[in-house]
Amino acid sequence: MKKELTEKEKLFCAYYARDGEARGSAARAGYCVAPRRSAEKLLAREDIRTEISRLEKAAAVAPSVEKGLKRLAFGSVADAMKLMLCEEDLSPQDIEKLDLFSVSEIKRPKGGGLEIKFFDRLKALERLEKLGAGEDTVQSSFVQALSDGAKQLSQGDEP
Prior knowledge:
Elements: H1 7-19, H2 22-29, H3 35-44, H4 46-74, H5 78-85, H6 92-97, E1 103-107, E2 115-118, H7 121-132, H8 138-154
Antiparallel strand pairs: 1-2
Helix pairs in contact: 1-2, 1-4, 1-8, 2-3, 4-7
């Protein structure tokens, strides 16, 4: 059975994933007596290394997700309209140059014409709002770990 990480261990993982400094991460997480030794023991554990790796990957993905959501929410649809209203057939090279990031689907019905569906801008804005509010991010778990660590320290819990 897999043992759950303590709040202090989660806090250490969050600090370490952010700055990669073992002793300081342990000290900030609440390992005050011997932070360097505590950090070494923590980093020797597979479950701690796995959690740090997960947090590092999530932190690397978050900025690109936010960038993509902004592009969906505020990006131009001019190239999609150009494609739809174009009288002549575009070459593959011309199509490759078009910015169709906000397009979710393109259909050419049997009766002729072109049907273009776009991603929902409102949903993208809602997701951006959640990101801005601290939801769905590694940062929110980091802040939660900080809060939990502060509560433990104020209650007198020591490592």
